[in-house]
Known about the structure:
- By secondary structure, the protein is of the alpha+beta class.
- The chain folds into 2 domains: 3-165, 3-Layer(aba) Sandwich (Rossmann fold), CATH 3.40.50; 180-622, Alpha/alpha barrel (Glycosyltransferase), CATH 1.50.10.
- The protein is built from 18 helices and 21 strands.
- α4 (192-208) packs antiparallel against α16 and α5 (239-256) packs antiparallel against α6.
- It starts with a helix and ends in a 21-residue tail after the last helix.
Amino acid sequence: MKSCDLYSLLPRQFQTLFPAPGYPALTGGAELTREFLEANRGRKIFVEYPLSVYGLEFEEPQKTVFERTVIASEELGTPGTILVQHGCWFRRVKNTVKPLMVSAKVAGYRHAVYGIPENAVPLLFVHPDYPDVMIAATGFSNFVRGRYAPAADWRRVWNYILGWLGSAETVPEWEMAVRPAYRPGAELPAQGELDAFTKSVGWFETNALALHTELLVTEGYDSIIDSAGRQKPRTKTRGDCTGESALVFACDWALNRNPASRDLCGRVMDHLFNSPELCCIDPQHPCYGMLNFYENLPTFYGDDSCRAMMGCLASAELLNDPSWDRKILRCLLSCLRTTGPQGFRQTNLRWPFDFESGVSWDHFNRKECYNYRPHSQGWMWAAYLLAWRLSGHREFLDSAREGIHRLMAGYPDNICWTNGFSQEIARMLLPLALLLRIEDTPEHREMFDRIWRDTENLLDDCGAMREIMGNIDNGMYPSPRSNEEYGTTEAALIQENGDPCCDLLYTVNFAFAGLHEAAVGLDDPAYRRAADNMAGFLVRVQAVSTRQPYLDGAWLRGFDWKLWDYWGSSADSGWGAWSVETGWTNSWIASVFALRRRNQGLFDLVTPLRYHGILPELLKEMSVVHPLPGRPAGPVTQAPGVL
């Protein structure tokens, strides 16, 4: 429904309406003079984003950053109720007014839990001298195109305005500009998962690839939505997103024998491993073989490198092409040689900051490390377990087993959680399922059962895995503890436990992969039922949009299964509730759909000892401690497992 459709609903004898046709430009904005207001006393008038109104002084337009729209008067509903007016441009009124709605930086999920700050900006108010004139200091009629949320709350706001104007009409429900593919509980077609996968492949081909001198995988789309409902692409490329995204094209080749996808997969991996912007290709560098966090940003996360390698090793298997085997194993050995004897790895290694004292990779291999964060360790261990199956290199198995045992010995009390506790649980499903496939012992089964029970307790009937936070003292990025904290750092999507939100960037995506691995490899139909239910949920919430076609076929980060809309407390300063990530989210959801179609897990996909022939040479290469630039070499130290 367009704004003009809204205005056409209203009988003209009850009100005079002044929309903002150029919003956010002031062009065409109303100018209400003293003569006009006096001549229309007693007649209801609604004006939005005016150029001028007699008796009021407005500042120049300003744009919100992390401010949200908040109900400020009981006339409109519960004060403190939070709405989102994406890309909100407003004109601050200098006069004293009694606001019905305000713009304010507030913490909270659906309600401003710390109250409305005193510096809140009035957005909707009645003229203090002309009580029949209601003014919106911003654009309200842009609610469909601008993707204002939640839709039900904005419908109530407009119905209130219409009632105030004297109209008996109400705003009909409208089709959201970006919406889930299916309604909650809707019956899915028999080929629903395949359709979702195929649509995701098309999304990657059209919206995730960029061609410069090489074929690049962009990171995705920013969470910020402008007044026209648009999200800007995050054009920088990342090592992890690149390696993970390759698997989507490999799966398309495996399922549909699409040669174009086979070619794309190869080109993506070639760029990943041959580009110094993404991969450390200097043999004398202590981070040799690892992947940069962002292009030309030499921060090396073990989890990022290992997730990318899982995408690449699975891709190489599906393409039946050994061209990348040596580089995949080199990257995994590089992560392994910087993992401590307890099986944990420092979350990231920053060049040159973590090496300023002259230490090289062997320092981290010998150094005690206790990093009880499944967020940064869980899928690293999963990659090590797959690497052991592929290479037979015992150190991969021993390191993963040691780390998993130590973490689970104190679980859940010793867990340091990142953006939420649910994601820490979800990250452990895959490594424990793989460890059980390798060593099916009572101890390993008991550990998996503990994680499974905690997962099961978080699964909603709709298939979502709800977000919770753990002990706040163990949280790295909890929800904001004040209004001022909102938007200042990474953060959880919920404000408090019980908020009906799930996270497709940090939780559901990883749980989906872990549940699938358990479903195909472990003998319990409960895992299959959970994976099936989650698959149905993910089919239903895949985005559909003709207004914003670059989102059509994608999965966004935050989803509220009660609103059945993309929503969350978007306090995260980097990856808010509406962000779209090629890696992490879209790559693994799509790839697991393909693996489900093949009834195959990662453990069954990889060829045992495929890397065994190239292992000795790579172990020798990776055992050398080269001198750091400008520093003498330290003593020669062998890489893990080298005799």
